[in-house]
Design a protein that fits this description.
With about 150 residues, the chain is mostly beta strands. About 15% of the residues lie in helices and about 45% in strands. It has helices spanning about 70-80, 140-150; strands at about 5-10, 15-25, 25-35, 40-45, 55-60, 65, 90-95, 105-110, 120-125, 135-140. The protein has a four-stranded antiparallel sheet with strand order 3-4-5-6, with no helix packed on it. The protein has a four-stranded antiparallel sheet with strand order 7-8-9-10.
C-alpha cells in the first residue's frame, strides 16, 4: 500500500513560517481561517470524497506557528458514543464562530453499511481553539439551524 503525503506551506512576506506534512492525503483539502484570531484549520481526506477526514489546527503568533490540541476532546467525546469499527470516524473544520472565536468541528460516522446502526451519524462542536475545551455540543438538527444562520 502506498502512503501519500501532501505538504502545506504558509509564508508571510516571502518567509516560510510553516511547512508541514498532511499524512495520507488523498483528496478534499480545505482551509478555514479566523482572521480575527490568527487561527486556521486544515481538513483533508485520506479516503477520497467520503472520508476519512482529518483536521489540524494552527495559531499564528508573529512569525511562529503553534499547533495546539484543539480537536482531540471533541473527537474523543463523539467517538465514545459513535464509532465505526470498520473505518473509524471523521472530523472536519466547518469554520469559526464570529461571536466567540470558537472553532466549529463536525464529527461523523462513515455513511456506509459496514458502520452499522451509526452509519452517517453527524454532530458538531464549538471548541476553544487554545485547548479544545468543548463550549457547545450540537446535534445534527441544531448544527443545521446554526449553519443556516452562520454561513461560512
Amino acid at each position: 500500500s502506498v502512503t501519500e503525503t501532501g505538504k502545506f506551506t504558509l509564508s508571510r512576506r516571502q518567509k516560510v513560517i510553516l511547512s508541514t506534512r498532511l499524512k495520507d492525503l488523498s483528496a478534499s483539502v480545505f482551509v478555514v481561517w479566523s482572521e480575527r484570531n490568527n487561527w486556521f484549520a486544515i481538513t483533508w481526506s485520506d479516503g477520497g470524497a467520503i472520508g476519512n477526514f482529518h483536521t489540524r489546527v494552527f495559531h499564528i503568533a508573529g512569525d511562529k506557528v503553534n499547533e495546539p490540541e484543539s480537536v482531540n476532546t471533541a473527537f474523543s467525546d463523539f467517538r465514545a458514543r459513535h464509532w465505526c469499527k470498520a473505518r473509524g470516524d471523521n472530523v472536519q473544520a466547518y469554520g469559526w464562530d464570529e461571536k466567540t472565536g470558537a472553532l466549529i468541528l463536525v464529527t461523523s460516522v462513515y455513511p456506509t453499511g459496514d458502520c452499522g446502526k451509526d452509519l452517517g451519524h453527524t454532530e458538531a462542536y464549538l471548541v476553544q481553539p487554545t485547548d479544545g475545551a468543548i463550549l457547545r455540543h450540537l446535534s445534527l438538527r441544531e448544527f443545521n439551524v446554526y449553519a443556516k444562520s452562520h454561513p461560512q
